[in-house]
């Protein structure tokens, strides 16, 4: 199996390949494929998360889930299969409660996703600012939030899809408090997410 992992297929990896990766790396390393995304047919290995990133993901997921209507649920670090060669793993998602209830799932499809949140890390700046939002918009996911760190505090950039173009338009930049009405009413003290 190691030779298959050392050399990707000539056509690149597929979204379905991610469900069949081994538990160990090509040289027996444990958990090598625990945090991996598929971007345009290439495996992208995610670097270890900083504490800021991890705490923000956990608390934002909790607050979104608590404020979501019954038909929606917030989950973290689950893949979205955007196409045959595109399967990113957003930091936080809001999906239908029906989809979230299926404990056998390894990914969601765009029609089940209402919001995608990416928390920008030093190694993911270009992917989180450019590549992923474009792909989420092309897939028709209606809402995208990008979270950046500014002097130890989260800043949330809120985007909504323009149905005429399929592109995201910036609807607000939130520093101290995130208060929006879509995809459902949300009111979050951003400073409290990292304290």
Keywords:
4 helices, alpha+beta, 195 residues, two-stranded antiparallel sheet, 31% strand, 12 strands, six-stranded mixed β-sheet, globular, single chain
What can you tell me about this protein's structure?
The structure is a single chain. This protein has 195 residues and is α+β, with helices and mostly antiparallel strands. The chain is built from four helices and twelve strands, in the order αββαβββαββαβββββ. It has helices spanning 2-6, 51-67, 97-100, 125-138; strands at 36-39, 42-45, 72-76, 79-80, 92-96, 107-108, 113-119, 143-150, 153-161, 168-174, 177-180, 186-189. Strands 3-5-7-8-9-10 form a six-stranded mixed sheet. Strands 1-2 form a two-stranded antiparallel ribbon. It has a two-stranded parallel ribbon with strand order 4-6. Helix 4 (125-138) links the parallel strand 7 (113-119) and strand 8. The longest helix is centred in the first third of the chain and has 17 residues, at 51-67. The protein is globular, with a radius of gyration of 17 Å.
Protein topology:
Elements: H1 2-6, E1 36-39, E2 42-45, H2 51-67, E3 72-76, E4 79-80, E5 92-96, H3 97-100, E6 107-108, E7 113-119, H4 125-138, E8 143-150, E9 153-161, E10 168-174, E11 177-180, E12 186-189
Parallel strand pairs: 4-6, 7-8
Antiparallel strand pairs: 1-2, 3-5, 5-7, 8-9, 9-10, 11-12
What is the chains' assembly state? single chain
Order of helices and strands: HEEHEEEHEEHEEEEE
Largest sheet: 6 strands, mixed
**What is the tally of helical segments?**
4
* Terminal Cα span: 45 Å
Helix content: 10-25%
What's the quick description here?
This protein is α+β, with helices and mostly antiparallel strands. It is 21% helix and 31% strand.
């Amino acid at each position: 199996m190691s030779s298959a992992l050392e050399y990707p297929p000539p056509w690149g990896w597929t979204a379905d390949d991610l469900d069949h990766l081994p538990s160990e790396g090509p040289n027996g390393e444990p958990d090598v494929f625990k945090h991996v995304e598929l971007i345009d047919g290439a495996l992208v290995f995610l670097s270890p998360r900083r504490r800021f990133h991890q705490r923000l993901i956990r608390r934002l997921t909790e607050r979104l889930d608590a404020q979501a209507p019954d038909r929606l649920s917030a989950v973290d670090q689950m893949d979205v299969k955007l196409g045959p060669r595109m399967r990113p793993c957003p930091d936080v998602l809001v999906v239908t409660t029906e989809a979230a209830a299926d404990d056998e799932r390894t990914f969601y499809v765009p029609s089940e996703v209402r919001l995608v949140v990416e928390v920008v890390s030093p190694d993911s700046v270009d992917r989180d600012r450019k590549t992923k939002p474009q792909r989420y918009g092309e897939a028709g996911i209606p809402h995208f939030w990008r979270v950046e760190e500014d002097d130890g505090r989260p800043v949330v950039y809120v985007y909504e899809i323009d149905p005429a173009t399929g592109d995201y338009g910036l609807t607000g930049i939130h520093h101290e408090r995130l208060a929006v009405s879509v995809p459902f009413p949300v009111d979050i003290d951003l400073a409290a997410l990292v304290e």
